[in-house]
Amino acid sequence: MKLLTDFLPIIxxxxxxxxHGIYTATEVLIVAAILLMAWQWWRRGHVETMTWVSTLxxxxxxxxxxxxxxxxxxxxxxxxxxxxxxxxxxxxHWRAEPLLQRLMGGQLPAALPPAFWRRLNSYWITFFxxxxxxNLVVAxxxxxxxxxxxxxxxxxxxxxxxxxxxxxxxxxxLPQEVKNSDS
Length: 183
Hints:
Elements: H1 2-20, H2 22-44, H3 49-68, H4 72-91, H5 99-104, H6 114-141, H7 144-173, H8 176-182
């Protein structure tokens, strides 16, 4: 359910783009992002940091897109978001507990060594930087229509593949007794 609500603004953006174009889609994205924040606040009593950052960037770059009537702003927003995520992970990379460990550590049944968390953290930094560059390449090399399709389907597919690969890396790092207890 959480994944659907997180992707709902992007899906609505995609549908609005196909029906009415980039500027209406940008308006829909802004409203959807604000409504997602309101829903999180109402449902949980707080808004996740990632939602705050993403919504702020949508407001800024969506607003610039609408004000200047220039879709370049909304196209670069994902790259800026990915760079911010990579930077947040990088800033904590050499700490005793990298950000990724704080975010995911409680979901794993065993304590994994710090070197493992730094390696996993490095993979995510690389992934976000790759996504930032790839988004810019598609945004500047192809039509807006192709970029919108890529934003929904391409980045979603790449993200799912990356997360599945991370699951394999994590499962291989788990101690044997944890693997046996899950079977």
